[in-house]
Amino acid sequence: MLKYSVGLDVSSKKIDCCISVIDINQRVTVKSSISISNDLKGFKNLENWAIKHYKEKTIPIVFCMEATGVYYESCALYLFEKNYKVAVVLPNKAKKYLQAIGLKSKNDSIDAKGLAQMGAEQALKFWQPLCKYFYELRQYTRQYQSIQEQKTSIKNQLHSLEKGMYNNKTITKHLKDIIKLFDKQLIELDKKIQSHINSNPEVKQKVDNICKIKGIANLSLATILAETNGFEFFENTKQLVSYAGFDVVENQSGNRIGRTKISKKGNSRIRRILFMPAFTAVSCKEKPFLNLYNRTFEKHGVKMKSYVAVQKKLLIIIYSLWKNNQEYNPQIYNIQEKEQELSSVLTFEKNIKNSPKQVEAIQGKHPVKDHSVLPLC
After folding, report:
1. How far is CA 352 from each of CA 339, 357, 362, 368, 373, rounded to the nearest angstrom?
2. C-alpha closest to that of 120 among 18, 1, 20
3. Fewer beta carbons below 10 Å: N end or C end of the chain?
4. Strand-strand pairing, 252-253 and 248-249
């Protein structure tokens, strides 16, 4: 035997559990199944049941579950604090895996069995909980976004009512009162977010350094920090870009070249909160971002794609400033832009010299048909 794996299908009231083991021939065998309540008593029963069937103590054991809303968090935290290895996978990833292994039916016990097999066969990344500080900050920022969305919905309803044939004064008054309440709550949440940031001197210093970027305000930065746990679990910008859904997805096979776009398979709250900062940075003519916007817009002529490139650059610069505890200096990034542009030109000229027939047309400094030497945004 190589590894024990416990699959947990979590719902609001109960958790279906299945423990499996994989041997040297990569054959997965189910040892036992159980259903427990999703509370502290159930977590203790889960631990006792797992220990009972975990007979080879020299072999590792992993608990695998889906990220189902917030219902999995208490169980995952309990197991983590007991020093067990916990893997939390996205629901779409688990769904695709269960389909791939040929599970046609679906219920809680089957899902638990599939998750146990997934944990046994794959080397999943282990879960770590958010620290309490950023968890509370995330609650504030998500509540702020939720109220904003509700306020927009009510304002649209009020506008529709006022432009209709007959105006109901009672409903109009109710809607206006709701909007006033939302405005009051947004002001309170904004103060609470600022107070929460100020409660940690180290975080406050880094926030002040980053907010020198034109377009980045406390709320925008607080949302990014809350959704990334202060960039705690990211080792490089590539992981961060993928987490935010800014990673580029290609669609090419043989002679067919499909559309290249960002994946959008990541944290949508980060992409949402970065739209206005990107727009403001370009409008205020912040050189590193304005230069990127102009360069990409000349290439494809689509404004939204250029703003997305600016959003991605903003996120990378925020990450760099946070990790290095540095103050934003636009001159440094202007120099980096020039160096990247020069490097791109030299690379292109080298490719022309080595393969004169490779590039058929040139537009400005960038090749049209040889996409391999285009500078990355």
Report:
1. 20, 8, 11, 13, 10
2. 20
3. N
4. unpaired
Same domain as 145, residue 238: no
Q: In whole angstroms, what separates CA 350 from the centre of its chain?
A: 38
Q: How far is it between the farthest Cα atoms of the chain?
A: 77
Query: Could you tell me which residue, 173 or 251, shows the higher pLDDT?
Result: 173
| 337 SS3 class | helix
Nearest CA-CA partner of 286 in 256, 250, 252, 314: 314
Residue 358: beta bridge partners? none
Question: 74 in a domain, yes or no?
Answer: yes
In 3D space, the residue among 69, 147, 67, 65 whose CA is nearest the CA of residue 112 turns out to be 65
Six token digits for residue 87: 């893997």
**Phi and psi of 161, rounded to 5°?**
-65, -40
Sign of CA dihedral 171, 177, 180, 186: negative
CA distances from 170 to 159, 176, 181, 345 (A): 15, 10, 17, 66
Q: Is residue 126 assigned to a domain?
A: no
On the question of pLDDT at 335 being above 70, the answer is no
